[in-house]
Amino acid sequence: MLMTKRKPASVAEILIEEFMAPMRLTQVALASAMGVQRKHVNELCNGRRAVTAATALILARVQALAGQPQRSLPWAANSASR
Questions:
Q1: What is the pLDDT of residues 9-26, one digit of tens each?
Q2: What CATH number matches the domain at 11-80, 1.10.260.40, 3.40.30.10, 2.30.30.140, 1.10.3630.10?
Q3: Is 6 buried (19+), middle (13-18) or exposed (0-12) by CB count in 10 A?
Q4: What is the structure's pLDDT at 77?
Q5: Structure pTM?
C-alpha cells in the first residue's frame, strides 16, 4: 500500500464537486429536490453534518432522477444495494 500525504476527500468536497457541480445544482435546488431544509444541505456542504443512511438514500434518489450513474458516488454504492 502506498503511503501518501494527501488528506482524504471530505464528504462535503465529494458532494459539491462530484454531485452538485455536474448537475449544476445550487444548495437551494438540492434542498428542494431532497425535500429537506436549506440549512441541512448547507451543513452537509460545509462539513458540519454527516451523511446518514437516510440522507444517502435521498441523495441516491435525487441522483437517479437526474439520470446520473449511481456508481460515481460513495454513498450510492451502499444505498443502491438496499
A1: 898 999 999 889 988 999
A2: 1.10.260.40
A3: exposed
A4: 52
A5: 0.74
